[in-house]
């Protein structure tokens, strides 16, 4: 029986059995008529359940519908195991509230106590629904998870573009099998075009490939930041449905975690779970306001030793574990200089940053100044300043104009502020000869990791999170002076939010200009450093072991007395 026929049959059965003049037991009659047509196939059965649930929710909105009889039919079928629910265990799907019913009806409570009925639900099915008694207090309609996807998680990641590069020939990194599988609710901005979204997508694929049972929970962002990558949207669990696993892994920062908990979404619930956070921060000390929120976690994952020491300095309680960050590069990326307007006879440098990450922390102005000193009007080199999400917030406009004004000082500098898909941003990197990042602070530095994985030399400030993977042999490191944090454009780095002695790095412009000239003059040097960068990033990927994460989770569970599979 197809789904449309089942829906029509169910509606007809309810209309027939629940008619006002029916004197027999209408609920049992409806159950008996529907039971033989319930599918054996689990996916088809789940779709049939949803059709029934839709009818029940529709009856709740109609004044002329015998809603109580629909509730009794729905709960009877679930309690009898006729339907296997979308998630393990049917309790969260049941509509009848036993305690409410008995508290509301003292006569029924007395009858149950006297043994006339097995419980309140027995009374409700046999006669209470027909009498019009309320089965539960007011409740919002339950939005169910997406139907069980036709693809398994393993099938999904097998079709995702890209690979974790282990060597310059692009071989996949080997995945170490886990001794015991573990379920993780992966909560993050899975579809968003920002760094945390990229991290959530990389982690989803890595954990699935490592053999974990991963339930991705998509947290939508306001405005236009979400919806850019829906490659595994069929796997997402809606926020309105309780998450299935005993472990939460948040790929977001404390303010975002706290904001989600304040919404009381069933899918984002700390109670009775092991809670882990993958956190990004760029300074040696965490904001004091973050610490109470992080101390609610059982474990913290640091993607760099720089960030690990910041966590150990300021957070008491959770286990802090450093774990290299997985990186998947889309397969088949090739330079396309014509597409990006890059002449074949120039040496192209690219600087790339996200406006919402604080333009003064990312410091593209230093890259522009270094390029001016190195080349002035020398047209054999070009600098492309790629700006991500430049107009997401109207408050960015004055900073964007300041950037354009700086770029206009030199004819071979241009600002590229077109919004691009992730693959196309990496295609831009592949089309350039080198990347420059004179950041004041980074928690990790995904942009640098991406360029180095593609075999591009990187000119970078020799301070903060990128030192987890940049060295004097695989990158062009630039000296710096530590200075007080000032002139930040984002509230996260404002006075009163940070420690009074907060510092970040000012890269030495003359050193950066020196590296720009050397790379422009020496193609062999560019190729040698780029090849070393790709090889070292492959080794970095080789060191990632999901067992380190799993062991931290199991240790936290043992301390709290929570049993895990």
> What's the CATH architecture name of the largest domain?
3-Layer(aba) Sandwich
CATH homologous superfamily (4th level) name of the largest domain? Glycogen Phosphorylase B
CATH topology of the largest domain: Rossmann fold
Instruction: Give the tally of β-strands.
Output: 14
Shape: elongated
Q: Assess the beta-strand content as a share of residues.
A: 5-15%
Mean pLDDT: 89
Major sheet strand order:
2-1-3-4-5-6
What does this structure look like?
The protein is an alpha/beta fold and 565 residues long. It has 20 helices and 14 strands. The protein has helices spanning 3-17, 26-34, 42-60, 67-79, 98-104, 106-113, 120-128, 153-159, 195-209, 254-262, 291-294, 305-314, 359-362, 364-375, 397-407, 422-431, 446-453, 509-521, 523-542, 546-560; strands at 183-188, 213-218, 247-251, 274-278, 299-302, 319-322, 347-354, 381-388, 413-416, 434-437, 458-461, 476-478, 480-484, 503-507. The strands form three sheets. Strands 2-1-3-4-5-6 form a six-stranded parallel β-sheet. A six-stranded parallel β-sheet has the order 9-8-7-10-11-12, sandwiched between helices. The longest helix has 20 residues, at 523-542.
